[in-house]
């Protein structure tokens, strides 16, 4: 009897020491994005990117000894921290997700991280939260992002303005963490380069009339208006009111303002405006575009970053032989960076085989992934201009 008890105890100890949930039937991954709210037109493409990577891994049959992976969506709404927190909590406690791709907007991401991610010990990789404040947030090693910080975007925008010979601009930003952080970054970089910000004013989303805000911006003057807002909400309203009143006819559009929905809503008066969003002309970006087309969707802003976010989570799990965040969070930087065999979009099965065999991978992905600092993208950017009612790429930085 004593021998049997000891044997059972030994077996239990081995089971407890084994990596968590290595061979399970199914593992769920949360996809927490702003399916409603001021960026809802961008969310479907971002979700499709994450779910494309999930499907690729699941269909390969090579993840965690054949474990299947399924996505579970949650709506972070972008600007409602309470709703974002509730959605994140449901994903973790009710749906049982092992990690989260998201959230989408900076304020929502901060809320979910502080109220859900950290208390529950859940890894989050955001494909699109860009607030500089997230670079220094206390996260217990649980938060990463495949989108570059707006500190870098501010520098890029300052360079674009300076190179075009623009010396004075008015600036308006959506009144939240994303808008304030980006607005401050643009203003600081442009003034450092010798430019002048005539006014740096917040605007609220959800208003039906932006004539008062535009009047203040026009009174301050400027060669153009920088709109650090949301293309489905206040940013669009500011542009339309500016055009209607004749206050401004040219606009600089940061990442949250770049999308086909804005061009469709404003039409030809938007021609000549220009902007920037994360993106590259790398081989991986081209491969990803073809994979997305084959899957039936058009990759928009942050879609490639979402594919990469999901891929990094799943590859880190394989490297750690565990789906527990505490086990695999330390592997994310390892699989994202050298040394190791370079992994492109569509090669996730290959990466899983290498990791299962104890080898190393350097995940390049759709966006030339290189994680720096506390785990965020070093970043590259696509410069665009609105021409003949369409968004055209004019270069990369």
User: Per the principal axes of the C-alpha atoms, what is the gross shape?
Assistant: globular
Structural class: alpha/beta
Radius of gyration: 22 Å
> Percent range for helical residues?
40-55%
Task: Tell me the fraction of residues in β-strands, as a range.
Answer: 15-25%
Using the coordinates above, name the CATH class of the largest domain: Alpha Beta
Q: Write out the strand line-up for the largest beta sheet, numbering strands in chain order.
A: 7-6-8-9-10-15-16
What kind of sheet is the major sheet? 7 strands, mixed
Tally of individual helices: 14
* Arithmetic mean of pLDDT: 93
Distance from N terminus to C terminus (CA atoms, Å) equals: 71 Å
CATH topology of the largest domain: Rossmann fold
Domain unit count: 2
| CATH evolutionary superfamily of the largest domain | Response regulator
User: How would you spell out the order of helices and strands?
Assistant: HEHEHEHEEHEHEHEHEHEHHHHEHEEEEE
Spans with pLDDT under 50 lasting ≥5 residues?
Answer: 1-21
Quickly describe the structure.
With 397 residues, this protein is α/β, with parallel strands linked by helices. It has helices at residues 2-17, 43-60, 81-94, 106-120, 150-163, 177-192, 211-220, 234-245, 260-266, 283-295, 303-320, 325-328, 332-336, 348-356, and strands at residues 26-33, 68-75, 100-102, 124-126, 143-145, 168-174, 196-203, 225-228, 251-253, 274-278, 341-343, 361-363, 371-372, 376-377, 381-387, 390-396. The strands form four sheets. A seven-stranded mixed sheet has the order 7-6-8-9-10-15-16, sandwiched between helices.
């Amino acid at each position: 009897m004593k021998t049997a008890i000891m044997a059972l105890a030994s077996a239990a100890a081995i089971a407890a020491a084994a990596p968590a949930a290595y061979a399970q039937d199914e593992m769920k991954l949360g996809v927490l994005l702003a399916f409603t709210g001021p960026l809802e037109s961008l969310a479907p493409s971002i979700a499709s990117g994450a779910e494309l990577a999930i499907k690729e891994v699941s269909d390969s049959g090579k993840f965690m000894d054949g474990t299947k992976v399924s996505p579970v969506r949650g709506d972070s709404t972008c600007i409602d921290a309470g709703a974002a927190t509730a959605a994140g909590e449901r994903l973790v406690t009710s749906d049982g997700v092992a990690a989260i791709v998201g959230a989408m907007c900076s304020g929502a991401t901060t809320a979910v991280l502080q109220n859900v991610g950290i208390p529950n010990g859940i890894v989050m990789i955001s494909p699109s939260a860009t607030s500089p404040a997230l670079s220094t947030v206390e996260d217990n090693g649980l938060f990463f992002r495949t989108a570059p910080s707006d500190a870098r975007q501010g520098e890029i925008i300052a360079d674009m303005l300076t190179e075009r010979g623009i010396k004075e601009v008015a600036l308006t930003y959506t009144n939240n963490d994303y808008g304030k952080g980006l607005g401050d970054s643009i203003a600081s970089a442009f003034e450092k380069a010798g430019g002048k910000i005539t006014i740096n004013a917040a605007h609220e989303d959800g208003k039906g009339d932006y004539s008062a805000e535009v009047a203040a911006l026009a009174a301050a003057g400027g060669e153009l208006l920088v709109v650090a807002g949301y293309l489905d909400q206040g940013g669009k309203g500011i542009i339309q009111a500016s055009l209607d009143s004749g206050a401004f006819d040219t606009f600089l559009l940061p990442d949250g303002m770049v999308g086909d929905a804005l061009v469709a809503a404003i039409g030809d008066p938007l021609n000549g405006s220009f902007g920037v969003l994360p993106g590259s002309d790398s081989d991986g970006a081209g491969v990803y575009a073809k994979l997305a087309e084959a899957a039936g969707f058009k990759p928009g802003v942050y879609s490639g970053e979402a594919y990469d976010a999901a891929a990094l989570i799943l590859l880190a799990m394989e490297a750690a032989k565990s789906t527990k965040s505490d086990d695999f969070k330390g592997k994310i930087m390892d699989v994202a960076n050298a040394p190791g065999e370079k992994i492109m979009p569509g090669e996730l099965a290959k990466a899983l085989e290498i990791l299962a065999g104890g080898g190393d991978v350097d995940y390049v992905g759709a966006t030339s992934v290189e994680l720096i600092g506390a785990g965020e993208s070093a970043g590259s950017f696509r410069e665009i201009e609105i021409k003949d009612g369409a968004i055209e790429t004019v270069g990369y930085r």
